[in-house]
Design goal:
Phosphorylase Kinase, domain 1, alpha+beta, five-stranded antiparallel sheet, Aminoglycoside 3'-phosphotransferase, Chain: A, domain 2
């Protein structure tokens, strides 16, 4: 079974391709079974290799640089963080008709996060906030700067045009006036003025693992960078609600401006996601819709 195609110009992959790549480059793993992993992720196709390994291949050209970034930075960041990170074991080269570098990781056990899978959502919110605070506290020397790598940690205004385009495209799904008002409030928040800090960049439920009812791991650091850490607040609306969202904010200790920018990033990400992946990624679209609805509901009672 091939991975579902999500982009018009993506490179197709399947288990047979993974077997050919392994046979040519990593014969010690070539006899292990390969099976695709269902995922709402959009940049990479993921295959489970045996019971203990995972293979990750970029789907699209804009994801190519993520491979070397994760191999460089994850081993450096992991010792400083309170939740598990993926462990890169090997970097594959182009071959067997596949044009880019690719990765083999240690398999991380767990399920993608959802509020229902958390035994104690408030504790999960505290745990994740502590992870984000620890990430922000790591030395940023040599890290990929948001402004130089087109990452989310730039001023929110850089997302203005595509966000407004998405609001217009979804006027039959959501109230465009309400969305525009929320977006413009976020844009009015002061920009980040402290030193640039590390951010994960795609802090969404699909990039968190739950094991035995507790958050256990954070993965997919493709958007990792250094800049305004507000994008990592997206998870407040994408996963948490009410008491857990309040605990998340309290533990992080963020000011009003950072919280507003975080809400703006959550809204922007979800709105842009929906029309692009409407017909190809139903799980991701459902998650994005829940995020938008969460933001609208919060504003309605504030």
């Amino acid at each position: 079974m091939p991975n579902t195609k999500m982009h018009a110009n993506e490179i197709p992959t399947d288990a047979a391709l993974v077997h050919r790549l392994l046979a040519a480059q990593f014969p010690q793993w070539a006899d292990l079974p390969v099976r695709p992993v269902e995922s709402s992720g959009t940049d990479n196709a993921i295959y489970r290799l045996g019971e203990n390994l995972a293979v990750r291949l970029p789907r699209i050209d804009w994801a190519v640089g993520q491979v070397k970034k994760e191999h460089t930075w994850l081993p450096r960041l992991a010792p400083h963080l309170p939740l598990a990170l993926p462990t890169p074991l090997a970097m594959g080269a182009p071959g067997a008709g596949y044009p880019w570098h690719w990765s083999i990781y240690q398999w991380l056990e767990g399920e993608n996060a959802s509020l229902e899978k958390l035994a104690d959502p408030v504790q999960a919110a505290v745990d994740l906030a502590q992870f984000i605070k620890a990430l922000q506290g790591i030395d940023t020397t040599g890290g990929p700067l948001a402004a130089e790598h087109n990452l989310r940690g730039q001023p929110l205004i850089t997302r203005d045009a595509p966000t407004r385009k998405a609001i217009a495209a979804l006027d039959d799904m959501f109230d465009p006036r309400a969305l525009t008002a929320i977006w413009e409030t976020a844009l009015a928040a002061p920009d980040w003025e402290d030193d640039p800090a590390w951010f994960h960049g795609d802090m969404l439920p699909g990039n968190l693992l739950v094991k035995d009812g507790r958050l256990s791991a954070v993965f997919d650091f493709a958007g990792l960078g250094v800049g305004d850490p507000a994008p990592d607040l997206m998870i407040a609306w994408a996963l948490f609600s009410d008491d857990s969202r309040a605990a998340f904010r309290e533990t992080l200790g963020v000011d009003d401006a950072t919280w507003a920018r975080g809400r703006g990033h959550a809204l922007s990400q979800a709105l842009i996601f929906i029309p692009y992946y409407l017909d190809t990624n139903p799980r991701g679209v459902a998650q994005a819709r829940r995020t938008v609805e969460s933001i609208l509901a919060e504003q309605a009672i504030s």
